[in-house]
TrEMBL record, chains A, B:
One of its GO terms (molecular function) is aminopeptidase activity. Residues 14-154 form the Creatinase N-terminal domain. It holds the Pfam family Peptidase_M24. Residues 162-360 form the Peptidase M24 domain. Transmembrane segments: none annotated. This is Aminopeptidase P family protein. PANTHER family: AMINOPEPTIDASE (PTHR46112), AMINOPEPTIDASE YPDF (PTHR46112:SF3).
Amino acid sequence: MPTRGFPTAEYEARTARAQERMAERGLEGMLLSTEADVRYFTGFHTAFWQSPTRPWFVLLPAAGKPVAVIPEIGVPLMRTTWVDDIRSWPAPDPDDDGVSLLIELLSPLSRLGLPMGHETHLRMPLADWTRMRAALPGLEIEDATEITQGLRAIKSEAEIAKIAHICAIGARAFSQVPEFALTGAPLDGVFRAFRRAALTEGADEVPYLVGAAAQGGYADVISPPDAQPLATGDILMLDSGCSWDGYFCDFDRNWAIGPPTDAARRAYDTLWTATQAGIDAARPGATCRDLYDAMARSLGTSGGNVGRLGHGLGMQLTEQPSLAAFDETPLAAGMVLTIEPSLPYGDGLMMVHEENIVVQDGPAALLTPRAEPELPVIG
Amino acid sequence: MPTRGFPTAEYEARTARAQERMAERGLEGMLLSTEADVRYFTGFHTAFWQSPTRPWFVLLPAAGKPVAVIPEIGVPLMRTTWVDDIRSWPAPDPDDDGVSLLIELLSPLSRLGLPMGHETHLRMPLADWTRMRAALPGLEIEDATEITQGLRAIKSEAEIAKIAHICAIGARAFSQVPEFALTGAPLDGVFRAFRRAALTEGADEVPYLVGAAAQGGYADVISPPDAQPLATGDILMLDSGCSWDGYFCDFDRNWAIGPPTDAARRAYDTLWTATQAGIDAARPGATCRDLYDAMARSLGTSGGNVGRLGHGLGMQLTEQPSLAAFDETPLAAGMVLTIEPSLPYGDGLMMVHEENIVVQDGPAALLTPRAEPELPVIG
């Protein structure tokens, strides 16, 4: 089992790399407000972010350690990290939820980076942001999305070890599905049983679980489960993001409940082969678009209008980059990716297939045990 | 067990009430971008929001049903709701992630409401928001926080039934803690066992679980658990937000592992009494501040610098209002609240205590079975 947390050297290296890129861009600081960005640079790790009540901020200065501007309730935990400069207020305070502290901290700066592009959001009230901007008229704000996303996309050995660990846990949970996904079992009960299995196998949490089961195949992969019992002829899919020490796996498995239709068997074969094409194409120097193209070619015209065929994975269930025609990001050693082709078939049905890999010199390494090459049958 | 989902009449009523308040404010529409706000008015319920990749929008027009502007992947699920007007794009598209669709939809309006105050955020890239604003120079944006938060704070009978159901599930899970929180059990294992118990008892998910265990008492209530084994003399606290059909409980329990110190016993007594004072004060017409004052008086000078002593509860773990000195919101029948006093004691220790209630005519109704009046001892 990997060690929880990271040595301080990991945070020093992340911060130094960010500051190098900030210097190239002439940024005197970078303001962070989301859970993953704050945790990446500080190690501050808590479920408390689930409450929308309190904003949390970190300023990455041009040199030196991150500066935390956080609610008082978080100070003891932040003190256990490598951060020294911790400024706090008794949140919640609707009149001044950290805004004065931010203004004071940022007022010496003239050029600030902020992640404000694709796949970002600012986790503070827009009215507070507007007030802060008005109080700092000389402060130029630059989009720093590529810095945070670019750094986080390349995982360290320690990060990869955590992701590999949770992928192995997820795989052991998936291997138990044939024991409880039996004819007559309600789908919401199958979801509960999967969550319990993943916890038993060592997951800290099972934040994400979607799936479907329907006769001949499923048509929707984002609905919550209902109590409909599994029936012979169903295709069952479960797609789970389990987490361990704040790092995710994200992969799925398909099963036939009783003998499947030929169409479902063929869809599974097509997806398995397309997944392999994606894995084989994942070499440093190839681009995300190359991986997309390799999978799309393998799927052939049957691929339909697919937006992307995989994505980055790590501290969040989905991260940059996207395996999509629009993403020309070159692959690099240390990128953890989901390989996730999908296929429409039959009368409005679809099938999805997903594995997790890490890009390295030479062929990519699978973090998930490869799904069975033929659609597995339960019962 | 309550029924999953809501009849269309519930969404019609929510929308009509919002539109009434919008009319009073002269708002021609209200733009929503967060999971809970979108679900509240549409019934769109999916774990897919956990991926930060895609933005999702709903416009509440001055009259008629909500209009959805969402990624294509969500269309089949949105079609199962009462929403008719669904506009979609093949997200993710970094060049235009719904922005053109929003501009087209909003261009006829001159006055738009947006939740942008305390406890809100805008779930879309700030750069996209800025681009949209620039394309709609005639559009005035007004803070509509009080409309969404005000409506959501008063729960319907159907919502209260769901919260009562998950509170009962959480209580059954808490009642099993003495079976697995034994001397020598590592705290992270206790967390896993609690999550499994809650799932077994019928929770859909256990998104939130914090807690602590330490000799004589704990000092921090937001850290993740470590593998330190429980020892005689520890005070253990678990605080959990389990969910069922998208509604939360949020309460905690304390236990002594072996005989507790007198200081811990006294802290527990003080908190139990302060909790009772809060429950007793919760009558329609009293304000949130009155509840805060009742608990603060009961805690006496021992209360320390406490920011708030409870909050709203429902589709999110924490919602408006706040039981705090700054919150003059009058209590009204249908408000579901956590009563959550905390107490510093000893040498940097603290204790927390939390129950869930619903405000109604006459005395408030407990949704959680009242904690034992004396600190329960395990072993």
